[in-house]
Amino acid sequence: MENLTRQNRWKNSRVRKVVWGVLFFALLTLALGNLSSPKRLDVQVGDIAPRSVRAPRPVYNRILTDERRAAAAANVSPVYKRELAVLESAQQHVNWIFTEIRRVRGLTDVDAASRTQDLADRIRLSVLPPETYAALLTVDDALVDAAEAQALALLQTALGEDVYPRDVTRIKGGIESGAAPFTLDLGDPALTQFVRELVKSRIEANMVEDQEQTDWLMQRAAQEVPEVWWQPGELIIEADKPITQDQYEALVELGLVGQQASYFSWAGSALIALVVVGVMALSISRFRPELLERDSKLLLLGLIGFITLFLSLAMSLFSVQLGDGAAYLMPVALNAVLAAILLDSRVALLQSVIIAVLLGLFTTATDVGGVAVAVLGSVAGVYAVARVESRNDLYRAGLVVGIVNALAILALYLLESAPLLDWGVWRDVALGAINGLLVAILATGALPFFETLFGIVTPLKLLELSNPNHPLLKRLMVEAPGSYHHTILVANLCEAAAEAIGADPVLARVGAYYHDIGKIKRPAFFVENQFGGENPHDKLPPSLSAMIITSHVKEGVELAREAGLPQEIIDFIPEHHGTTLVSYFYYMASKSGQSEYVLEEDFRYEGPKPRRRETAICMLADGCEASVRAMRQKSHLSHDQIEQQVRKIINDRLQQGQLDNCDLTLKDLDTIAKVFVKVLSGVHHARIDYPGQQKQAANAGQSQGQEGGSPAPGEAEEAVKHGDLDQQRTGESGPRA
Fold this sequence. Notes:
The strands form 3 sheets. The protein has a two-stranded antiparallel sheet. The protein has a two-stranded antiparallel ribbon with strand order 2-5. It is rod-shaped. The protein contains 33 helices and 6 strands. Helix 24 packs antiparallel against helix 27. The longest helix is centred in the middle third of the chain and has 32 residues, at 423-454. The chain is mostly helical.
C-alpha cells in the first residue's frame, strides 16, 4: 500500500516533470554542444595543420576582407582640383624679378661687377652663367620689357591649362626646346635663355589632390567590397600545410582553439536547449496535458525527436557532395508523421518546427530555405496522417510530403530568379521528392516498433485488432456466439455515437469488440448464449451467481493481457460496467431472509468508472442494446418505446454517478441518445406477422404466463446486464431521461 502511494505521488508530482525536463535539457545540450564545438586543435600561426578542417558554418575572414578593402581603396584615383594661386604666384614672381632687374640697372654709380653679382644673388638661377646676368644689365629697356611680357605670356600658356604632376616634365621640356606653343622671339640668345629658365623655375602642377574627396571615395570603395566568408563545407585549413593568420582566426571563432570560444559555444547550446525544453513543456501542458502524466509518452516524444534530429544530421554528411541540396534530404517530416499518429498533431508540428530551426542553426547544410522546406513538409505530413486507415496511407502521406517539398524548393529557386535549365535546380527538386519517400519508408518501419515498445494504440493498430480473425474474436464467435452478436451491435452503436460527438470512432468500435471477451470462460451463464436451454443460475445462490457474472470482467482483463492487447482496449472491459450494481441478484439475496448479511459491495462490479468518452459510450451502448433486445423478446417495439428506454438507461447511469470521471456533457448525452435510437430502431424495426405467427405468439405468451414469477431461462442474466428488467421485477422505477 505504501509503495502504491509512493507511485501515485511520483506520477502526479511536479518533481517527476522537473526530472524529465532536466533529462531532455541535458541530452539536447549535449547534442547541440557537440555540434557547435568540434574537436579542438593545439596549433599556432605557422604550425603545420595536423588535419584538414572545413567550415561547419559561415566563418568571417577578417584578414582577407581587410586586404581586399585596402586594395580597393588603393585603386581609387585621386581627385584633383585647379589651384589658381599657382599661376598668380608665378606671375607675381616674374614681375618681382623684372622689377629687381630694373632697379639694379638703375644703379649707375655702382660698378658693373657688383651689380651683376647683386642681380645673380636675387634671381638665384644657378643654371645661368654670369654672362647672362651681365647681359640683363646692358640690353635696351625695350628688350627687357619685351622679355617680361613674353615670360608672363609663356606662364599663361603653360599654367593656363590643367597641369597634373605628371605633366610638369613635359611642359618644361617644351619650354626648353621652344616648341609650339612655347616659342620665344626676343632676338637675344642670352635674354631668351634667361626667360626660359625663369619660366621653367615656376612651372609646377596646378591640379592639386582634393584629399577630403579622395578619402571619401577610398572609404566608399572599401565599403563596397563584400565581407569574405568561408562558406559551409569550404576548406579552411588543409592537412600538412602551414596555418596562416586568417586561418588561425577562423579556428578561434569556431572554438577549435582557445578555451573561451569553447565555453561560449557550450553556453549558447545550453541556452537554446533551455528555451526549446521550456517551449515544448508549455505547449504540451496547454495542448495535451495528459502527456505529462505518462512517462512512456514523454519518453516516446523525446525519442522520436532525437531520432529525427540524428537522422537529419546523418544526411548532412552529404553536404560536401550535394551542397545546399543535402538539407532537402533531411527527414524532418518523419517527426511530424510519427508524433502525430502516436501522440498529438499539434505537439508533433511544434517539435518538427523546432528541429528544423535547430538544424538551420547548427548544421552546415541547412540554410533559411532548407528550414522553410522542412517546416512546410512537416505541416503537410501532419495533415496527411490526420486519418490513417491502413499502412498504405503512410505512403500516401510520404507522397504528399514529397510533392510539397518539391514545390517549395522550386518556389525558392523562382524567387531567386535561378535559371530553370540548370540541372542543380531539378536535382534539388528531386531530392525534396525523395525526402517524402524516405519519410514514408522510415515511418512504416518505425511505427510498429513504437506501437509494440510503448503500447501505443494507433489507428493502424486498431484496424489490425478489428480483424475478425483475431484469436480472441474468433473464440468469442465460436464459443459465445450470442455474446459475439451482442458485441457487434454494441460496436456499431459506439462507433456511430463517438463520431457524432467528436470522440474517436475507431477506438470506440474496436474497444467494444473486446468488452465482453471474458464471457468466453463461462458462456452458458449469460443469457444471450443459452438459446432457450436451462438457466444455470436457477440452481445457484444469488451471491455465487453475482460472483460469476462479475468475474467475466476480471477474466476478460486476463485474456486481453495474455493476448497482448493495448491498455486502451483493456480499459473497455472493466469500465463498461463501472461500479454498477448486479441489482437482480442483490434483490434475490435480500429476499432470502438473510438481508442483514447481504452487503451491496459484494454485488457491485469493481470498476473503475469510465475515464474517457469512448469507454463511457461503450457502457451506455451495452446497457441500451441489452435492454432494448430484452424488450424486443416480449413484443414489437415502436420508435418511441426505444427512445424512452434508451433515455432511461442513460439517465440511470448519469444519476448513479457512473459518468462522473469522463468528460461527456449533457449535450453529448443527448446526441448519443439520438444516435442510439436511430441505430436500434433500424435493428429492431417492426415486421409483418405472417399467417400462423399470431397463434404461435399466443401459445408462447400462455407458456410464459404459466411460469409465474420465476424468470425465464437466461432472463435473470439479461436483467443483470442492463438493469431494466431488474426494475420491472423489483418494482423499482428510475428517472427518465
